[in-house]
Hints:
This protein folds into two domains: 3-107, Peptidase S8 propeptide/proteinase inhibitor I9 (Alpha-Beta Plaits); 112-493, CATH 3.40.50.200. By secondary structure, it is α/β, with parallel strands linked by helices. Mean pLDDT is 88; it is low at 1-28. The strands form seven sheets. Strands 10-9-13-8-14-16-17-18 form an eight-stranded mixed beta sheet, with helices on both faces. Strands 2-3-1-4 form a four-stranded antiparallel beta sheet, sandwiched between helices. The chain contains twelve helices and 23 strands. The longest helix is centred in the C-terminal third of the chain and has 18 residues, at 420-437. Helices cover 24% and strands 20% of the residues. Helix 7 (209-218) packs parallel to helix 10 (420-437). The chain starts with a helix and ends with a strand.
Amino acid sequence: MTRRGWLAGVLVGGLIAGGSLVAMPASAEPALVPLSPSLVGQLLSATSGRIPVMVHGATLVDAERAVAATGMQRVTTFRKIGVVVARGTKQQVTAARTQPGVTYLEGDQPIAVHAVPSAVATHSTSLVATRGLEARQTLVGANGAALDGTGVSIAVIDSGIDPTHPAFAGGKVVRSLKSVCLDESNTDTNCLMDVPTGVDTDTLSLGGHGSHVSSIAAGRSVTLSDGSTVSGAAPAAKIVSLSTGAAVVIVSADSSMNWVLEHHAEPCGAAVPVSQCPPIRVVNNSYGPQGGGEFDPKSATVKLQRQLVKEGVVVVWAAGNDGGDGSKSLTNPPAQDPTGGIISVASYNDQGSGTRSGPVSTFSSRGAKTDPSTWPDISAPGQNIVGACRAYLPICSTGLKPQNGPGILDVGSYNTLSGTSMAAPQIAGIVALLFQADPTAMPVEIEKALKSTALHYSDGAPYQQVGGYWTSFDKGTGLVDTVAAAKALGAHTH
């Protein structure tokens, strides 16, 4: 068989949804490495042009060698996990399967943000439900100051941010970057570009989502025109915003996560003092594929987040907005990672009152009843959350209660949105508070403090003992208790 005929045979008859082969080609042919399900689909549907692919190697040298040997164009490199992002034709990508040292080939796939229109309009009461406001008012951290997130930067991978918004005044956003990895005109393999004062990254089809999420995690305490107060969970924390750019796909998101991995210790560079730009200790991810999916431990996302945890950074995920009844898992795939310090967040409804005995949100993705590995870790308020949201941005236009900010020009600059997208940054901000309580804590200790102190609210599925915690397939270990978690890590009263 000619090599061309063998390659065609592999593509047409040898692939299955799991990325393996039903039947191997002739025994004389080289062994083939597995493909991700998304890449299988891309190869089967591709007719011409270049396909984005993540080439995983036993070492980075192996991945780089495979890209060069097959003639693919290198886009960027995930140095610490041995992955090269490249573009190649169907033939080039398929040829990479036989290259020595290649362990996995992963395709690109679209992702969605986990926000839904709110059913009712409300004031912001989530900090009452999480006991976050109480923690700020009564507890101090290791630095002797009130728990407000001082000394911590939160990375938010999303649609970008509007740094001119009143929620982010006073130098709140210390770094703002945009992914241009899949922009064909980009020739720089460091494919995240600074947009320090621009708002272009937050005016896409998902525009406004990133600003809303960022304000929930770390927005300043602001009094709105109606006299109500809105604040992020960690109002003194700094924000590093990483926009997925025009391509809302996993390669862009992974490139952003890789940037955090490479720069979390000094996100603004060595010349900028820590007091102005603290280390990133937590990264928020309020996106993922719709409809859940299987956890893929071979994926770049999982490799990146596990390395982040090893280096002391907590990774927070929205569980997803696909609801479910437990008959199958609808949880965001990378959120299912059992690694300590990677936290999956379900949405709780505090009913606009700050109650701690409300229900789990109907839209919040459930895991499979029979598979605890798919269950969320914890719940946080994600229903009817007030946050930064310019009225002209697409996501913000879905909110039902635009509210004016503190300035005369801040018309409709806050709005109410719902989703596990809003629940996850509640936890990300609380994680910042916990690192202020104990800066030496490891990610696994942060997760333990959160889960071991969570309130077992009674709505929904019963709790079962799994892995040392009482947990459930719809709401995890229960509603976060910021005061109890902070005390577990050494925070004490004024």
